[in-house]
């Protein structure tokens, strides 16, 4: 038995692969294009581990995906591959359309061909698509949280491209019978997150004594999901989810951005008592708001709790402390990312160990 993970060198995918191989001996074929967000240094602990087969390539390359499916015959495909940062989608949406929409389409086509022709429509096969709560749009302060039946109202090029991919996945089930599962989760945080997203950016800027740029009034609200809990949810959906169903995954931890930043500052004041930048809160700088900035996201987790018995285990206060501590403890990873050295990991550390694409 094997699973194929796409986008597994990014933040959530890498956490998923590491957790998977910690908990089981089932091999993982990891197909990742290695954009700026992909980092093979995430797998330093798996060097020489034959259970992890890394292939550099694009989910939009249907011939490559078909070849990998024929060669490895995975029992499931878990699709993390995407362009994932809202701010980048505002400055240039082309790659978001290319990977999130066209890439997902090509991946679905290759998987469908394999499932229909080689696996004779094996009912136990699964295609799990990892998506976001951002497809549901923006909530007001008193609106009920997103459920699986909330109308799609994506507002950013990123969320629009993810919404499109969700619709394709749904259609491949409805029309072709492909056994798909979709998860829509809230903002993840934790180890290995690229420091363009709010939490790692604030931690690393604060450590360096740089301004902490808070967009607008800082009162936008996100629900924060610890990445380890998200990985548990994906494994649960893969194991017990009903094909064709959608599951919302949330951390039950709604926080205003400014409060998140202040908590990080407080933890750093405590953990780095000798810092010249204490109190770190003085680095907070309000900056021009993000265009089209969604006000609030919130997830109703009733369905996944009721049907699959999953709920988040790590509360925000514990998760954020663990996360800050991880960035303090892993200076090698941090320096590699900040200097750009991580992009050379493939040549320097992985030469000869990467399956040919
Ligand atoms: P990430 O940006 O850290 O990683 C994305 C990975 O996909 C990278 O390794 C990148 O190299 C790879 N990739 C990009 N284009 C590719 C392509 N065409 N073919 C193959 N690989 C490609 O993203 P993440 O934060 O780990 O998010 C993973 C998934 O979860 C995404 O689908 C994202 O939309 C979704 N999601 C993320 C969050 C979050 O808070 N990070 C929240 C909800 C949903
Ligand atoms: P982000 O981590 O980019 O995730 P998303 O936009 O997918 O929710 O941003 C989280 C929140 O933090 C969002 O409301 C935008 C805000 N933000 C800042 O205030 N400053 C920043 O530098 C960044 C990156 C985000």
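^ Assign residues to that structure.
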């Amino acid at each position: 038995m094997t699973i194929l993970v796409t986008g597994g060198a990014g933040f959530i995918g890498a956490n998923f692969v590491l957790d998977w191989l910690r908990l089981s001996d089932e091999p993982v074929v990891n197909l990742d294009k290695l954009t700026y967000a992909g980092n093979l240094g995430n797998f330093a602990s798996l060097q020489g581990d034959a259970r992890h087969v890394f292939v550099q390539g694009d989910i939009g390359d249907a011939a490559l995906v078909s070849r990998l499916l024929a060669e490895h015959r995975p029992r499931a495909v878990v699709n993390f591959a995407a362009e994932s940062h809202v701010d980048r989608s505002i400055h240039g949406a082309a790659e978001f359309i290319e990977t999130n929409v066209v890439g997902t389409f090509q991946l679905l086509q290759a998987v469908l061909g394999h499932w229909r022709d080689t696996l004779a429509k094996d009912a136990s096969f699964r295609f799990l698509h990892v998506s976001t709560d951002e497809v549901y749009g923006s909530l007001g302060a008193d609106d009920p949280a997103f459920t699986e039946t909330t109308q799609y109202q994506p507002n950013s090029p990123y969320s629009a491209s993810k919404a499109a991919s969700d619709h394709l996945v749904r259609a491949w089930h409805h029309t072709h019978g492909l056994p798909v599962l979709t998860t829509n989760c809230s903002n993840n945080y934790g180890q290995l997150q690229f420091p363009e997203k709010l939490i790692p950016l604030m931690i690393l800027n604060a450590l360096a004594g740089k301004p902490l740029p808070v967009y607008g009034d800082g009162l936008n609200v996100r629900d924060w999901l610890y990445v380890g809990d998200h990985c548990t949810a994906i494994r649960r959906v893969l194991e017990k989810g009903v094909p064709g169903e959608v599951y919302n995954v949330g951390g039950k931890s709604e926080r205003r951005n400014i409060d998140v930043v202040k908590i990080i500052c407080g933890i750093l004041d405590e953990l780095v008592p000798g810092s010249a930048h204490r109190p770190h809160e003085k680095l907070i700088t309000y900056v021009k708001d993000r265009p089209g900035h969604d006000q609030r996201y919130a997830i109703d987790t009733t369905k996944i709790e009721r049907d699959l018995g999953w709920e988040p285990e790590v509360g925000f206060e514990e998760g954020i402390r663990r996360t800050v501590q991880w960035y303090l403890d892993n200076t090698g990873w941090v320096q590699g990312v900040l200097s750009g050295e991580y992009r050379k990991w493939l040549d320097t550390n992985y030469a000869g160990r990467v399956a040919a694409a």
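The mean pLDDT is 96.
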